[in-house]
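Hey, can you fold this?
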Amino acid sequence: MKNKKLMMLALLFGALLVLGACSEDKKENAETGGDKFLMISGDTVSEQGGCVLASRYSAGDKLVFRMNALDSRTNEQVKDANLKVHLSTGDELDMVYGTHGDEDFWVVAYPVTEETPTGSLEYYVTGEAGDLKGEFRPFNVAPSLLSIVDLDGEAATEPKEDVDEEEVDLSTVETNQNVEVHAVNFEFKGPEGEKVFYVKAGEEVKVSLTSDEGMHGLAIEDTDVNIEEANGEATFTPEKPGEYKIYCSVFCGAGHSDMTAKLVVVE
């Protein structure tokens, strides 16, 4: 009888230990949020007209991916996450984190050209941040799936007409090989508010970008200048006189396509 009571006490004590361990596990899971992974979500918009939700794109448009990444344990944004878009074309696009309007998230733009194959464009997004990993795939329903379509005879968006500029005598115009560009949402301008910069051909040019508002980049067409940091600089030597478009190389919001200026190279 005594042995039986001791056995019962031992069983009860073991059960209490098991219950205690379960309670500790539940407490730990509650504190850590359970499984740890990167929760990725987002959408796609058209740059034409300014960040319009869309699933059909045609030549001349820019398909913009917008994503967010949260820690599953804390439900807080993981700002140092590396996100990448994988396209069925084989292209892989590295996303850039920044401020857009009143929110912070990751974006990358995919230009649609006449060479872009028409039809379904499949994609998914992967992300990593330390020991956190995650993946996003759109719902398999028409509004969430992307497609590249022909213009079907519709007129393409008319480019904005350039504002008449004051004629400048390029033989006497003052040049400056140090091009200082300040960026705000959504405009490029020089220290004096100028939007046209004059430099000499055959001499090194230093281009510096200062982002006073928002996250921007700077590139000059037909050159290898591409400053992708909000504040950075680059040097190059223009050989051919002419006009070169300066544009924002980092998608920055609804007015991204309006962020242009002009570099004029004179003899």
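Oh, and this one too while you're at it.
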Amino acid sequence: MVVNAIEFHEVSKTFPKASKPSVYNTTLTIEEGTFVTILGTSGSGKTTLLKMVNRIHEPSSGKIFVQGEDVSKVSVTELRRKIGYVIQQIGLFPHMTIEENIATVPKILKWDSKKIKERVEFLLELVHLPPNEFLKRYPRQLSGGQQQRVGIARAMASDPDIMLMDEPFGAIDAITRSSLQDELISIQKRLKKTILFVTHDINEALKLGDKIIVMDQGKVQQYDTPLNILMNPANEFVSRLVSSEDIFQLLGMLQADSVMVPLSQVSMNNTKTVKHNDHLKKVLTLLLNSDIDGVIVEDDKKNPIGAITFEQLKLNNKIKQAVFPL
């Protein structure tokens, strides 16, 4: 049964003295365990939408439900303890060690010291910061990327089912940013957290999201899978957003499992295999440079879970124009 982690029911937000809403009447459903990116330019309403979930901003109208519960009926403190929150500025306490920073919420929740220690060490391992090296360090002794990893670990300390992330990698250099993106994808797949992630970067939105909310001027323009947004934009705004980038490069942000079809739907003789999280650009390169009918997509345990064929991709007009122009 599909469970909804977050539901927006005709939610809007107008700030005092504002001439128009920051977010117009919005109805959306975020399913449990999905990674949803919110894509939009500055002033599009994406951060306001995010911050209404944990009541940093209160809606002007409508209702928001978290795991079936009306957030307006829950105390703000109780609500925020159940939701992880990561921002670009990180906000680590400079006078506390990394261990103490991550342990902040578990201590408030009165976890016993043994459980807290185990949780902190587990999370540091999860974000690839060896505990024996980092437990006793202070934030000033870490790079920006390392600090952001600690910020993610701290947000996950109480083991929340839902994570809100507001452009957390915006101030990080490109190489570190890509590494952190990969890390976050791995964590989400492993722990099945529901993540709502704000970004203004289309490449980041495509790479991270199972689904993408595209916003402009306070309104949701499209809420769909990365592939559908790329190949079937809902309106002129989304079309311009997508066409402003090189389609072939954008395909490098999509994973093989986002375009595969069931094995039962295809008949192939000569094949090669790819991992479920390999980028579609790698798949296209294989199809273009190998004498094969298609590729078999495998999961992490090397079990076949789907297929991508040469003909299947050529049927898509945008892929055909970008990759098979002749």
